UniProtKB/TrEMBL annotation:
Stretch list, region Disordered: 107-126
Pfam families: PAP2_C
Gene Ontology annotations of biological process type: ceramide biosynthetic process
Species this chain originates from: Ceutorhynchus assimilis (cabbage seed weevil)
Protein's name in the database: Sphingomyelin synthase-like domain-containing protein
Residues covered by the Sphingomyelin synthase-like domain: 283-356
Length: 448
C-alpha cells in the first residue's frame, strides 16, 4: 500500500492501521495508536516532537518509536503542501516535526546544505556533558589567572611616578567625589552574583556545558586583559592611592632566580586572594581594562542567559548589581571611566559572539576557518553541541542522588586502582620469587 493511493486527510482508522502494519510497527503499538487513541491519517501527519516525549507514544518500544518517527517524517515531506493549507507550516522551508529548525547554509557554488541537530533516542537534541572538556577549560582558566597575577606584579613595578604623571582628566572622576568604601561594596556585589551563579550551576541539567563556557570565556577575556595592561601603563587615577614600584631594581647580590621567586610569591598572593581588596590584595597599574567589571559583566550575562525568562526579577536584580558594581568602581576612583567602558564592551561582545556561533551551527560551519583563528577553543568545546542549551533544572533530590552516584563512582574507581596496584605488586613478587627459586636450583645442580 503506498501513501499516495488515497489522500492522507481521508485515511480512516482501518486504512491507517494497514499503513502502519506495512511500515513494520508491532500489533500492540498499532492497537495503542489506532484503537485506543483513534490516530487516523490527519493525526499521523500532525504528530510533532513533543508528542514523542509523552504518552501514548512514549509507551511504545524503542524500535516502534523509531519506525513511527521515520514514517511521520516521510509523510510530512510528501504532504508538505497539505500542512501549509492546514496552517501548521508557514512556508515550504519550515517543519513542524522539530522544535529546532534545520539550519541552511549556502555554499560558494550556490548549493544549500542542511544541518540538522543530532537527536537522542527520545527525539531530543543531543547535549553530552563531556566532563573532560569542562576539566580542560578549568585548567585553562587556572593557567590564565596565574598569568594575569604575574602580569599584575610586572605592571605594578612599572606604575608611573605620581609626582611626574598626575591623574588623567576624566569626566566621571572629576565630577564625582571619592567614596572610600565603594570598592569594597563592588566586591561584595560580585560575591553575591557569584553565589547566584553557583546556585544556577548546581541545579542546571547541563551544568558541565555551562561550566566550560564560563571558564573558556572568562579565561579568554582575562588573557586579553593581560595584553592591554602590559603594553601601556596609565597613570594612577587618584591621589588617594598609594602606588609606587615595589621592585624597581633587582635585589643587590641576588640572582635572577631570586627576583623571579619574589615575583612569583607576590603573584601567588594576588592569585590566592582573587585580586580582591577585601582579601587583602592591593595592586596598581592594572587599569586598562577593569578586571572587576569583567567579572561582574560575565556573571550577569551568564545568570540572565541560563535562567528561565519568566524569572524576570532575577534578571532585573542581576543587571542592577552589575550596574551598581560598575558605579562603585568609579566612585572609589580605582579605575578610569574608559577602563570600565572597554571592559563591559569587550566582555559583552565576546559573550554574544560566542553564543551566536554556538546557537547557530550554520554560521560556525560557514566561518569555521576564521572561528579557529580568532577563537581556537570554540571549535573543540562546542563541536558536539548542536542546538541552544535549554534551561532545564534538577530537583534537590536529583542533585543529591547525582552527587551520591559521583562519590560512589570515585570510591569504586579508587578501589579498582588500589586493587590493580596490589595485583601488579603480587605479580612482581611472584616473578622475583620464581626467578630466585630457579637460580637456587641452578646453583644446587652445579654444586652436585
Amino acid at each position: 500500500m503506498k501513501s499516495d493511493n488515497l489522500p492522507i486527510l481521508d485515511w480512516t482508522l482501518e486504512y491507517t492501521k494497514c499503513y502502519l502494519q506495512n511500515q513494520g510497527l508491532a500489533d500492540n503499538s498499532i492497537r495503542i495508536l489506532c484503537e485506543e487513541n483513534k490516530v487516523d491519517g490527519k493525526c499521523l501527519l500532525c504528530l510533532n516532537d513533543n508528542d514523542f516525549t509523552v504518552e501514548p507514544i512514549s509507551k511504545l518500544t524503542l524500535r516502534d518509536r523509531k519506525a513511527l518517527y521515520c514514517t511521520c517524517k516521510a509523510l510530512q515531506r510528501e504532504n508538505h503542501d497539505i500542512l501549509i493549507k492546514l496552517g501548521i507550516a508557514d512556508s515550504p522551508e519550515s517543519s513542524i516535526y522539530s522544535n529546532h529548525q534545520s539550519c541552511k547554509q549556502e555554499s560558494e557554488y550556490g548549493d544549500v546544505e542542511h544541518i540538522s541537530p543530532t537527536l537522542s533516542d527520545d527525539g531530543r537534541p543531543r547535549l553530552p556533558p563531556e566532563k573532560t572538556k569542562a576539566f580542560l577549560s578549568l585548567c585553562y582558566v587556572v593557567a590564565v589567572t596565574w598569568i594575569t597575577a604575574f602580569v599584575m606584579v610586572i605592571v605594578h613595578d612599572r606604575v608611573p611616578d605620581m609626582k611626574k604623571y598626575p591623574p588623567l582628566p576624566d569626566i566621571f572622576l572629576d565630577n564625582v567625589p571619592h567614596i572610600p568604601w565603594a570598592f569594597d561594596m563592588c566586591e561584595v556585589t560580585g560575591t553575591l552574583m557569584f553565589t547566584i551563579w553557583l546556585i544556577v550551576l548546581l541545579f542546571h541539567k547541563h551544568r558541565f556545558i555551562l561550566l566550560r563556557r564560563f571558564f573558556s570565556l572568562s579565561g579568554t577575556v582575562f588573557l586579553l586583559r593581560c595584553i592591554t595592561m602590559l603594553i601601556t601603563s596609565l597613570s594612577v587615577p587618584g591621589t588617594h592611592l598609594q602606588c609606587e614600584p615595589r621592585n624597581t631594581f633587582p635585589v643587590q647580590g641576588g640572582s635572577s632566580f631570586d627576583n623571579l621567586a619574589t615575583k612569583l610569591s607576590q603573584a601567588y598572593i594576588i592569585w590566592r586572594g582573587a585580586g580582591m581588596s577585601i582579601q587583602g590584595v592591593r595592586t596598581c597599574g592594572d587599569y586598562m581594562f577593569s578586571g572587576h567589571t569583567v567579572a561582574l559583566t560575565t556573571l550577569n550575562f551568564f545568570i540572565t542567559e541560563y535562567t528561565p525568562r519568566h524569572i524576570y526579577y532575577v534578571h532585573t536584580l542581576s543587571w542592577m548589581m552589575n550596574m551598581f558594581g560598575v558605579f562603585f568602581i568609579l566612585a572609589a576612583h580605582e579605575h578610569y571611566s574608559i577602563d570600565v567602558f572597554v571592559a563591559f564592551y569587550i566582555t559583552s561582545r565576546l559573550f554574544l559572539y560566542y553564543h551566536t556561533l554556538a546557537n547557530n551551527q550554520a554560521l560556525m560551519s560557514r566561518d569555521s576557518t576564521r572561528t579557529r583563528v580568532w577563537f581556537p577553543l570554540f571549535s573543540y568545546f562546542e563541536n558536539s553541541v548542536d542546538c541552544i542549551v535549554p534551561n532545564e533544572y534538577d530537583t534537590p533530590a536529583e542533585v543529591a542522588k547525582q552527587f551520591i552516584n559521583f562519590v560512589n563512582e570515585l570510591v569504586v574507581d579508587a578501589f579498582k586502582s588500589l586493587a590493580s596496584v596490589f595485583q601488579r605488586q603480587e605479580a612482581s613478587v611472584a616473578v622475583s620469587n620464581s626467578s630466585n627459586t630457579s637460580n637456587q636450583s641452578h646453583v644446587s645442580k652445579k654444586t652436585m
